[in-house]
C-alpha cells in the first residue's frame, strides 16, 4: 500500500461527514484534503485510542518531530508522505500541523475548561486551524475567508462536543465549561455517570440537562450563522466543501437539539446516504 492509498483508506474508514464533502473536489484538491485529514486523524487517534498517558505523550512528541523532518524533506509516515507534495501549492506550513498537535496535547493535559473563552482556545487549535488549512486547499482567494474558516471550525467543534458528551464522559472528560455547568446546576459527577446518582430525582436531572444542552445547541447554531455571514462572495463557490460539511453538521445538531438526552447513551449520527444527499444538494444548488 502506497502513501496515497493509505490516506484514502484512513479517510474512508473514519465514516466522517468530511469525507462526503471531499468526493466533489477535483482530484488534486481531493488528494490534498484527504492527506491532511488523515494526518489530523492520526494525531487525534493518539489521544482517543492510547490508554497510557505516558505512551500518548511519547507518540505526540514523535509526531512533532515527524512534522519538522517532513518539512525538511524527510517524511517517514504515509500521512506526511502523502501530504508534503501539496503543502507548497496550498501554503500549508509546519505551524499549522504543529498547532493541531498542540490541540491534542491539551487533551492530555486537561479534562475540564473553566469557561467558554478557555474552551475556544482548544477549539482554535483542533478545529479553527484545520478549517484554515482546508479553506486554502479548497481554493481560498480572499484573505477574509480565513475568519470564516475559523468560525466554521468552531461551530464544527462545538457540534462534536455536544454529540460526544456521553462518549467523552466515559473517558473522564467534560468539555462543557465549568461555569456553564454551574449556571444550569449540573454536577460533574452526574455527567461522568451519564445520569443522576442512584436514588436521585431522575426527572429533575433530565430537566437540568435539557436546559444545558438547549443552551449549547443554540450557541452552536448561532456560530454557524456567524460563520456563513463571514464568507466572502468571491470565495463562495470554491468553499462549497465547507458548506457541505456545514449542512451535514447543522442537520445533525438540529436532530440532537430535538432529543438531547440521546447523547448520554449513544452517538447520534446521520446515515451515509443522508450525508451524501445533503452534500449533493449543496453541490447542485450552491447553498445550504
Description:
The structure is a single chain. By secondary structure, this protein is an all-alpha fold. Helix content is 72%, strand content 0%. The protein has 15 helices and no strands. It is globular and about 60 Å long. The mean pLDDT is 91.
Report a brief summary of the structure.
With 288 residues, the protein is an all-alpha fold. Helix content is 72%, strand content 0%.
Secondary structure layout plus pairing:
Blueprint (H helix, E strand, L loop, with lengths): L2 H12 L2 H6 L4 H23 L3 H19 L6 H6 L3 H4 L3 H16 L6 H23 L6 H19 L1 H6 L7 H6 L4 H6 L8 H29 L9 H19 L13 H14 L3
Helix pairs in contact: 1-3, 3-7, 3-8, 4-7, 7-8, 8-9, 9-13, 9-14, 13-14, 14-15
Search tags:
288 residues; mainly alpha; globular
Give the overall shape, derived from the CA principal axes: globular
Could you state the order of secondary-structure elements as H and E? HHHHHHHHHHHHHHH
Helix content: over 70%
End-to-end span in angstroms? 37 Å
What share of residues are in beta strands? under 5%
Low-confidence stretches: none
Average pLDDT taken over every residue: 91
Total beta-strand segments: 0
C-alpha Rg, in Å? 19 Å
* Global structural class: mainly alpha
Amino acid at each position: 500500500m502506497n502513501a496515497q492509498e493509505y490516506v484514502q483508506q484512513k479517510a474512508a474508514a473514519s465514516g466522517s461527514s468530511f469525507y462526503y464533502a471531499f468526493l466533489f473536489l477535483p482530484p488534486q484538491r481531493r488528494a490534498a484534503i484527504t492527506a491532511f485529514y488523515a494526518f489530523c486523524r492520526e494525531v487525534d487517534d493518539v489521544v482517543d485510542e492510547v490508554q497510557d498517558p505516558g505512551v500518548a505523550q511519547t507518540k505526540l512528541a514523535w509526531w512533532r518531530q515527524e512534522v519538522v523532518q517532513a518539512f525538511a524533506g524527510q517524511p517517514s509516515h504515509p500521512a506526511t508522505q502523502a501530504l508534503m507534495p501539496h503543502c507548497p501549492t496550498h501554503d500549508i506550513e509546519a505551524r499549522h500541523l504543529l498547532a493541531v498537535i498542540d490541540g491534542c496535547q491539551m487533551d492530555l493535559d486537561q479534562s475540564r475548561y473553566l469557561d467558554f473563552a478557555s474552551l475556544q482556545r482548544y477549539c482554535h487549535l483542533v478545529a479553527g486551524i484545520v478549517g484554515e488549512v482546508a479553506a486554502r486547499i479548497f481554493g481560498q482567494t480572499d484573505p477574509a475567508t480565513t475568519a470564516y474558516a475559523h468560525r466554521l471550525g468552531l461551530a464544527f467543534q462545538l457540534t462534536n462536543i455536544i454529540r460526544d458528551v456521553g462518549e467523552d464522559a466515559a473517558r473522564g472528560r467534560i468539555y462543557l465549561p465549568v461555569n456553564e455547568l454551574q449556571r444550569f446546576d449540573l454536577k460533574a459527577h452526574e455527567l461522568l455517570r451519564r445520569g443522576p446518582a442512584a436514588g436521585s430525582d431522575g426527572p429533575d436531572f433530565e430537566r437540568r440537562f435539557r436546559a444545558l444542552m438547549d443552551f449549547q445547541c443554540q450557541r452552536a447554531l448561532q456560530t454557524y450563522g456567524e460563520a456563513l455571514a463571514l464568507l466572502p462572495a468571491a470565495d463562495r463557490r470554491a468553499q462549497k466543501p465547507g458548506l457541505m460539511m456545514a449542512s451535514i453538521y447543522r442537520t445533525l445538531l438540529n436532530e440532537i437539539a430535538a432529543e438531547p438526552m440521546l447523547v448520554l447513551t449513544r452517538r447520534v449520527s446521520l446515515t451515509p446516504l443522508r450525508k451524501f444527499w445533503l452534500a449533493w444538494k449543496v453541490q447542485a444548488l450552491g447553498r445550504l
